[in-house]
């Protein structure tokens, strides 16, 4: 391998190592930035879920407080007059159910029996002391409470307020908001698809619904999507938000699972939000390919410039100088061509060799002359 080829090979290795390191670091930074943006977006969805849940819980409690404070309702619950409440509140419930997502409006008596369900007036009198810890808590503390709880009609966000006749508790008023409106509101604010899943192991009734591991879809903004995501990602419930990723039909979905705790603190399920990050990942891929192309072009240009420079200023002067010195060493006429100038060090060698040749050649010629 010639000197020029060795220099070219060394420079190739150095360039590839240098640009490769820079590319690897840049790609790592780009990928970290993409992951951070994806994580921040999913955290925002999780925070929006929690804030919407809290806000709707406060709304449910406020409505329950309104009905609990109305004098007509107080006297009717105290006297056991279901008809009076039904007549007064039936049109109100119909309006709230249609316009505000109120799924239930009901009253319990002080002995923890169901007094009246506006959504099912014919069903009353059942004992709620075992199935409804929120109602029991309000009955004992005389303070309003809100939270998620399973009941006769399934999962709902409920607000329960005490019905007080002076200082005496005569019953409780309850308003329950459906979760479909809540998850649709979160989708509107964040653009993410949202589902409510319940844990079969924690007592959720699934009926004819498909079970995915331990989870069953209760409500969702896109049932088909979440059925596929639950099969592909197999998310698990935890006490803290958890994150996952799934690829469906070349689309990348980021997933955040927010735990769903009932009023007693028992984890009965979770909210699963899925955001489409295909555009974000495609942008990262485009940036990565642009970077690789630019780096390849830079390597080619740098190598070409260095190779030409090495050949012009180092390799060629050394080659001519080598031919010059070989001719002198073999006793041949080195020729009249002067070695071309190169880099400073090469010029020094050429000048020194030329000067040396000027002294050596005459001396050699004098030594070969015959004696007279």
Please, could you describe this protein's structure?
By secondary structure, the protein is an alpha+beta fold. The protein has helices at residues 3-69, 71-79, 82-99, 133-141, 179-190, 223-233, 278-329, 344-367, and strands spanning 102-109, 114-117, 145-151, 154-165, 168-177, 193-199, 211-212, 215-220, 242-248, 251-261, 267-276. A hairpin with a 2-residue loop joins strand 9 and strand 10. The mean pLDDT is 83.
Features:
372 residues; alpha+beta; 5-stranded antiparallel sheet; 54% helix
Low-confidence runs (pLDDT<50, min 5 residues)?
Answer: none
What is the makeup of the main sheet? 6 strands, antiparallel
What is the approximate shape? rod-shaped
Task: Assign the structural class, choosing from mainly alpha, mainly beta, alpha/beta, alpha+beta, or little secondary structure.
Answer: alpha+beta
> Mean of residue pLDDT?
83
The amount of helix comes to 40-55%
Q: What is the alpha-carbon Rg in Å?
A: 42 Å
Strand order of the largest sheet: 7-8-6-11-10-9
Number of strands: 11
- N→C terminal distance: 51 Å
């Amino acid at each position: 391998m010639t000197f020029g080829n060795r220099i070219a090979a060394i420079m190739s290795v150095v360039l590839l190592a240098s640009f490769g390191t820079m590319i690897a670091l840049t790609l790592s930074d780009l990928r970290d930035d993409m992951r951070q943006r994806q994580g921040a977006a999913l955290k925002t969805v999780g925070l929006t879920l929690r804030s919407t849940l809290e806000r709707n819980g406060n709304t449910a409690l406020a409505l329950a407080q309104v009905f609990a404070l109305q004098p007509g309702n107080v006297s009717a619950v105290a006297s056991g007059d279901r008809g009076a409440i039904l007549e007064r509140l039936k049109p109100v419930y119909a309006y709230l159910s249609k316009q505000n997502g109120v799924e239930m409006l009901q009253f319990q008596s002080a002995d923890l029996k169901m007094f009246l369900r506006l959504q099912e007036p014919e069903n009353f009198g059942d004992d709620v002391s075992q199935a409804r810890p929120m109602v029991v808590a309000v009955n004992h503390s005389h303070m309003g409470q809100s939270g998620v709880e399973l009941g006769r009609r399934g999962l709902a966000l409920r607000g329960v307020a005490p019905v007080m006749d002076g200082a005496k508790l005569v019953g409780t008023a309850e308003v329950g908001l459906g979760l479909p409106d809540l998850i649709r509101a979160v989708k509107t604010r964040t653009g993410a698809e949202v589902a409510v899943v319940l844990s079969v192991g924690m007592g959720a009734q699934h009926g004819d619904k498909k079970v995915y591991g331990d989870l069953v879809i209760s409500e969702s903004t896109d049932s088909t999507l979440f059925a596929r995501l639950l099969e592909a990602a197999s998310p698990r419930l935890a006490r803290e938000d958890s994150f996952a990723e799934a690829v469906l039909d070349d689309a990348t979905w980021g997933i955040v699972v927010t735990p769903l705790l009932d009023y007693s603190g028992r984890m009965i399920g979770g909210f699963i939000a899925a955001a489409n990050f295909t555009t974000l990942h495609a942008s990262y891929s485009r940036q990565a390919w642009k970077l690789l192309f630019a780096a390849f072009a830079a390597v080619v240009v740098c190598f070409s410039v260095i190779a030409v420079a090495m050949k012009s200023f180092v390799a060629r002067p050394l080659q001519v100088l080598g031919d010059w010195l070989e001719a002198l060493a073999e006793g041949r006429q080195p020729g009249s061509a002067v070695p071309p100038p190169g880099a400073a060090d090469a010029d020094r060698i050429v000048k020194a060799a030329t000067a040396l040749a000027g002294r050596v050649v005459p001396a050699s010629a004098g030594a070969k002359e015959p004696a007279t």
